[in-house]
Each structure stands twice: as C-alpha cells, then as structure tokens.
Specification:
Blueprint (H helix, E strand, L loop, with lengths): L12 E10 L4 E13 L2 E13 L2 E11 L2 E3 L5 E19 L12 E22 L2 E12 L4 E11 L1
Antiparallel strand pairs: 1-2, 1-9, 2-3, 3-4, 4-6, 5-6, 6-7, 7-8, 8-9
Length: 160
C-alpha cells in the first residue's frame, strides 16, 4: 500500500528511454527523455528522438514540452497528462549520385537537410510500477511547416 502513496504531492525528477513510431516517414523512433516537476500539475519534459531512415529520410527531433499531470487510481499509480510544447526537427533526405548522369559528381550518398521549428500537442498515460519505476504511453502531433507528423511512443523511466 505504501508503494506509490504520496506521489501526487512529491516534487520529483525522472529520466528514461522511449521507442515509438513516426508517421512522417513511417519508421521507428528511439530517444531519451527527462521530466522535472515544478508543481503538482506542471512539469517540464524535454526529450530528443532519432527517427530512423525509411524511404531515404531520417530525422533528429528535439522537443521541450510542458506536461500537465493528473493523478488517479488507487495510490495515485496512474497519471494522465496533456502536453504542449516546442519542437526543432532536422530532416535528412538521402539520394545517390548516378555515375552515368553527366550532372553527377559520383560521390555516392548525397544528403539534403531541412531544419524547422514547430509546435507539439498531445497526451500520455503513465503507470507507476514502483516508487522508482514508471511506464508510459504517449501520442503527440507535431505541427511543422511542410513536415508535420504524429508520434506514438512507449517509455520506461527511473524516478528520483
């Protein structure tokens, strides 16, 4: 019973890893996240994700979100949180030089990079397994000029 009692009132930090799926290039993502709780219903949650290459594109996504947690369930073991924040994404597009093409220099892989700022909005659900371990499921949309996407992820984290 004392497993997660008092969690809602405690100021805490947490960090962990996440994996997921990004709709922009239909590929997996993986990343690191951190949370710092400033108040019972506000925490800052930066994260960085790598969106793996698929259809000759991949990206690095850096986010800083505000999360607004609401604790519920027995011993406050569950947390629902809406989120909103800012995003910086660097999309890389890869193509090969064709040595038979007279306009090509034959160097092989050529990358075009597009960097954009945008906005995030979404929600998540956490489950506190132990006082120092939590699992989460999160879905968010990222609004970026010409590069909007959605990401669904699962994560595991250490609470300290």
């Amino acid at each position: 019973m004392a497993l997660v009692g008092g969690v809602a009132g405690a100021r805490e930090n947490a960090m962990g890893v996440r994996v997921g799926y990004n709709t922009r290039n239909s590929s997996p993502t993986a990343g690191l996240w951190f949370q710092h709780e400033f108040a019972p219903h506000f925490r800052l949650a930066p994260n960085v994700d790598y969106i793996f290459r698929h259809d000759n594109s991949d990206a690095l996504s850096i986010n800083c979100n505000g999360q607004f947690p609401f604790h519920f369930g027995q011993y406050n073991a569950f947390v629902f949180y809406p989120l909103a924040g800012i995003n910086y994404t660097s999309w890389n597009y890869h193509h090969s030089d064709d040595p038979t093409d007279s306009s090509s220099d034959g160097d092989g892989d050529v990358t075009s990079r597009n960097n954009r700022f945008g906005f995030n909005a979404g929600a998540g659900l956490e489950y506190r397994v132990t006082p120092t371990l939590k699992l989460a499921l999160e879905a968010k949309g990222t609004l970026v000029k010409s590069y909007s996407s959605a990401t669904i992820s699962v994560s595991i984290g250490y609470v300290f």
